[in-house]
Amino acid sequence: MSKPWIFVSPANRGIGAALTRHLLRATTLPIVATSRSTSPSETKKALLADLSLPPSSSSSFSSSATQQHDHDRLTVLPLDVTSESSIEQASDQAAALFPPERGRWHMHLGFALPGVLYPERSPRQVEYAAALETFQVNTLGPLMLMKWFADRFLPRKGTELLLPSSPSSSPHHHHQNLLLTLPPHATWTTLSARLSSIADNTLGGWYSYRASKAGVNQLTKTFDLHLARQRSQDRAMALAYHPGTVRTDFTREFWTHVPREQLFDVDYAVERLVDVVVAQAQLDTHRGRCWDWKGEEVLP
Fold first, then answer.
1. 225 and 248 in contact (C-beta within 8 Å)?
2. Is 297 part of any domain?
3. How open is the CA angle 22-144-194, to the nearest 5 degrees?
4. How many domains does the chain have?
5. pLDDT at residue number 168
6. Is 173 helix (H, G, I), strand (E, B) or coil?
7. Would residue 219 count as lying in a domain?
8. Residue 260: its pLDDT value, please?
9. How many C-beta neighbours within 10 Å does residue 234 have?
10. Does a structural domain hold residue 300?
11. Strands 236-242 and 31-35: what pairing?
12. Is 261's pLDDT higher than 70?
């Protein structure tokens, strides 16, 4: 029986940080998170800060015990998605923690979230170096994460998955009513965007970003076919996800151009992500495609 763990990259800021904290509250699984711009120790400290909510009346375990459990199951590794050697090294460190050999461990939820944006409004504004960075981070970054993490750690066909029998099965968790029920299949999620859609492109502009995210959707479909036909079959799938416009540093310069009701708090955005990707997504309807925060497909 293969035991599950979770992967989030990167997790030092924005959606990745909020998602990691949400999953620490909502699951009892070990989590591997990555950081590029801050040290692993600083990132881990920030992710765990004020994490524990007041114990529920049904909880008989101390807050200190809960905090220690959260600390022990969170691992933060240095990783730069523009450096394959960095990704490979982090993959080897994860393999030492959760050996995939003989089906002892498998990644059950994986989130590839790297992103950079240079909003060129005309071809004359496209700068080669910035466009190259956009593809390195947004497209090649997720591809290398697929290579070194998804293809290495997702369960193989025939793997027997050992999942928590019920959301309240862990004595260490202080907020049982928040716990997720894990899907029977593993899921690899790559962050995309509505701007990836050629069918939906009615405004133009944002050349390198649109193209890089269209590439994400193509890679997601291609990798999912690999999982479905060769590696995992019904044990794992891949999909892409558009979170909407989220109030993070990534979108700060565009906040004034977005209607208030379409600008999401990061915690709400993470709740929608988890609901669509973990709770709603089904093998027969969702795999290989791009979905938005409403649970609706973003057309290619």
1. no
2. no
3. 60
4. 1
5. 45
6. coil
7. yes
8. 61
9. 14
10. no
11. unpaired
12. no
